[in-house]
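Chapter review: from sequence to fold.
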Amino acid sequence: MNENISVIIPTFCEADNLIPLIQAIDDVLSSQNYEVLLMDDNSPDNSAEITQQLSQNYPLKLITRLHNHGLALAVIDGFKQAQGDYIVVMDADLSHPAKTIVEMVDLLATNRADFVIGSRFVKGGKIDGSWHLGRHLNSKIATFLSSLLVKAKDPMSGFFAFRKIDCPPLKNLNPIGYKIGLELMVKGNFKHIVELPIFFKKRTFGKSKLNTKEQWNYLRHLHRLYQFAYPRLSELFQFGLVGLNGMVVDLCVYLLAQWLFASPHMIARIVSFWFAASANWLFNRKTTFKTRLRKPKIKQWLAFISTSSLGFVVNVGSYYLLTTQILFFYHYPLIAFFIGIGLGFFLNFLLASKWVFKST
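The token string follows.
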């Protein structure tokens, strides 16, 4: 095997790891045509000096990024710079075994895989025993949340490889945070994903970049990916979350109208509907359908209220019938309250999606 390989490594303050990292890569790729691209977010340590020394003996290039910092964005910039036919992405903290690169590229070169993951969780894969319970749980939960997007045991891995020609259009990549591998697998046309077992070592030098902010970014990233992979289902789910918020508004106004103003329950039900519908319109405009055509607010609010009024017929009408025709619901009107909301939900979603918040 003699392939053109680009190894892309995002870095920030990884100076202590650079020498053993580059030496480990060269030990396995010295007989290949390869390059290493260090995509550095303007590290304030001596990474630049060390890279300059290493580049005298190794095919190494430091690309200092002054703007749009972040691991995933650094890797995407690396795609633009890469000259190889095969792209390998790995971390700089020595957690990923360089020896696996050869097998990764061989799988791609022989068309036995379209995307190769260095996996911690397939048979033969291992994790450094120093992982605490919280990190294990974090990894398991993150993997579970992505399970409808990618069928892989370790979709969170930052160690992966693919043919450059198979890279999805860079303009379509829009990651948040650090899970660029997951972004590629969801948006790329990789029919055959193979996972190779690796031993994931604990970082020796430097500080981990995983923190609460990155975990929140991962959830935001997941939201984007689910919207990409399941656009209509994602809208329905988001519409449902907004509906739950509206249901809280609905319930609070309904109860307050009776407790504070002694309103008859039917009057309270009608008043609460208007407050809830207005709240739902506002949140759907800002979240569920925020990428849709932006109509003037008053015009769109009126349209949403109008369509919600049709749902109102089902919602409040069913409430009225249940509480007046069935003795059980007369004594337990809250149950009828929730049934009415559920019956009107799907009608409201269809009308909102097709008319109020048009795609074009």
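Two observations follow directly from the output. The longest helix spans residues 231-261. The chain has a mean pLDDT of 88.
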